[in-house]
Design goal:
- The protein is an alpha/beta fold.
- The protein folds into two domains: about 200 residues, Glucose-6-phosphate isomerase like protein, domain 1 (Rossmann fold), CATH 3.40.50.10490; about 160 residues, Rossmann fold (3-Layer(aba) Sandwich), CATH 3.40.50.
- About 45% of the residues lie in helices and about 15% in strands.
- The strands form two sheets. Strands 2-1-3-4-5 form a five-stranded parallel β-sheet, sandwiched between helices. It has a five-stranded parallel β-sheet with strand order 7-6-8-9-10.
- Helix 1 packs antiparallel against helix 8, helix 1 packs antiparallel against helix 13 and helix 9 runs parallel beside helix 13.
- The relative contact order is 0.15.
Length: about 375
């Protein structure tokens, strides 16, 4: 597997949006009826790896566009710790029939693990994302959620996969012409599927019109970041670690970008929240560690600028990923992002630098994604 596969994946992202957004939107429109949409009180977004990162990146869309309380969680953590039924006395074990006693759902209303109506009378929606459709922890989370009376929905790229047999509803986000690679196109497809569900919950289908201009911005950002990546890779290749920082949806984007550096180049890269980095990782050696700060227009833009300035004062090699018209970011080295979008859609643009950077630093180090260049013990 050659690192150039990452660039080929990135080249397809804009066309995937143009060609598949409408298809996926039509599928999403029929997943939830009006009464069901009105009865959903809270949403859990469940996934692992890229799917977890996409869930974190989509959380704001569910809260602000979908108008529902939302929380992302890794699949195992959700099942073992975060789900309401995980705290039932006895470790959250279900009855012999597979459903907790008294937890039968009722039309228009949810139930607590003890069988009592939820405070708002609404139902819990568990949305799982898995490109392959066969992640074991995701399967287990869906099975348990269904047994507890939650409405389950899966976003997957694989028709007929095991999750499609478990989830009550399925949003297929399949892509043509996939090749083995660290997830890039599949990540965007999962993110798109999740965003469309958020829009459905908020009756905000009018926002589908924004995917056309978004695709143009993805294409322009792909060209801009590709040109910049080789230069930055020359510096990053001389370091064993890096940090990628962002808050809100950009925290999910930061984790995804860091994951591509790990999977492709074998570098230790951390995707971290802006404020958490300021409290903890700013003390890490070496002092000239590369720090990539995601600063899209939105709620965390000003704080991202402050963190970037502080990191630079500490001697870090700081690169800000920002709108190409951001004059404040120009005080630092930058990865330019073309086109302004609402913050909920910024994850479609701000991850591209990480894909290109991962490809070029892997190339410079003479490595292969997933350590394919090394003999396995």
């Amino acid at each position: 597997m050659n690192p150039e596969v990452l660039v080929r994946q990135a080249e397809r992202l804009a066309d995937d949006l143009r060609e598949r957004a409408g298809v996926f939107a039509r599928r999403a429109s029929g997943l939830l009826g009006e009464a069901e949409v009105g009865g959903i009180e809270r949403v859990w977004l469940v996934g692992d790896g890229d799917s977890y990162h996409a869930s974190c990146a989509a959380e704001l869309a569910f809260a602000s566009i979908g108008g529902v309380a939302c929380r992302p969680a890794g699949a195992f953590r959700f099942s073992a710790y975060d789900a309401p039924w995980a705290h039932r006395p006895g470790g959250g074990r279900t009855s012999r029939e597979g459903r907790a006693p008294g937890a039968e759902p009722t039309p228009g209303g949810g139930r607590t693990p003890g069988g009592k109506p939820t405070p708002g009378g609404g139902r819990t929606l568990v949305v799982a994302a898995t490109a392959s459709g066969r992640t074991p922890a995701v399967l287990a989370a869906l099975e348990r959620a269904a047994a507890e009376g939650a409405l389950t929905l899966v976003v997957t790229g694989t028709d007929g996969s095991p999750v499609t047999k478990v989830a009550e509803r399925v949003l297929l986000v399949d892509l043509p012409g996939l090749e083995p690679s660290p997830g890039v196109r599949t990540y965007q497809a999962s993110l798109l599927g999740l965003t469309l569900i958020a829009m459905r919950l908020g009756a905000a289908e009018a926002l589908h019109a924004e995917f056309g201009p978004l695709a143009d911005a993805v294409a322009a950002t792909h060209r801009a970041t590709g040109e910049r990546a080789s230069e930055e890779a020359a510096y990053l290749a001389g370091h064993a670690s890096a940090a990628v920082l962002g808050s809100g949806p950009s925290h999910g984007t930061a984790m995804f970008a860091a994951a591509k550096l790990v999977e492709s180049a074998g570098l230790f890269a951390l995707g971290q929240d802006l404020e958490e980095w300021a409290h903890v990782e700013r003390w890490a050696h070496p002092r000239d560690m590369p720090v990539y700060v995601l600063a899209p227009p939105g709620r965390s833009r000003a704080h991202a600028g402050r963190i970037a300035a502080r990191a630079r004062e500490l001697g870090r090699h700081v690169v800000v990923v920002a709108d190409d018209g951001d004059t404040e970011a120009a005080a630092h080295a930058t990865f330019p992002v073309a086109g302004r979008v609402r913050e909920e859609l910024s994850p479609f643009l701000y991850h591209l630098f990480g894909v290109h950077l991962a490809a070029r630093v892997t190339e410079r180090l003479g490595r292969r994604p997933f350590q394919r260049d090394e003999a396995r013990p």
